Amino acid sequence: MTANKKVKRGVYLLPNVLTTFGLFAGFFAIILATRGQYADAAVAIFVAMLWDGLDGRVARLTNTQSEFGAQYDSMADMISFGVAPALLMYFWQFSDMGKAGWLAAFVYTAAGALRLARFNTQISNEDKRYFQGLPSPAAAALIAGMVWTKQSIGVTDYDQYLTLVSWVILVGAGVLMVSNVRYYSFKDINLKGRSSFKFLLIATLILIVVTVWPSAILFVFFLAYALSGLIMTMIEVRKKRRLKKRAKKS
Predict the structure, then answer these.
(1) What is the C-alpha to C-alpha distance for residues 231 and 226, in angstroms, rounded to an integer?
(2) What is the pTM of this model?
């Protein structure tokens, strides 16, 4: 009986170590942002995303899921995808804006916290195929991708508009996180089963394209993903309106 109690009190090492790696990457992104190393901070956020994707999959594959792991993962996500992107954007563009700058960063951070809290409370009831609201890692990737891309491009003739565009994207990402807009989760894709050779070829080509200009490709991908939910919602609303009109006519 004593041995069983000791086992229950412990935590699974492997997935929680991976979560810690992600937490460290998010924390390090904040440190880099305060030093003005904005591109490196953006890369660190993407590294945190990598670890965040691995810890959950490893836990499921090794059957080491636990309530502690789920809560620890949420805490790490709050740092990596809630606080780090907001501070990165603040130090990069908003530090001279005054109240409007830090309020935008806070709106994003608060939205990230609310998004994670809602996800944790609805995880047993939600449709696994879709997320309700923009996932916080995708929102963080959108912000990090924009910063990384701009730092790679350097000075342009349109830099006078950069602060305004950055403000709109940061606040917009925050609003989408707490919205009811649905986003495809990709969780119904079976990675363990057999698939056509074409899929392997496509995956290889995507990897090659990403390595050519990773910052721009990742930014465009996550921008398209953020917009995809809005487009899907608009299509669903139009379908419902058409059905209502047909019902009234009949």
Answers:
(1) 9
(2) 0.86
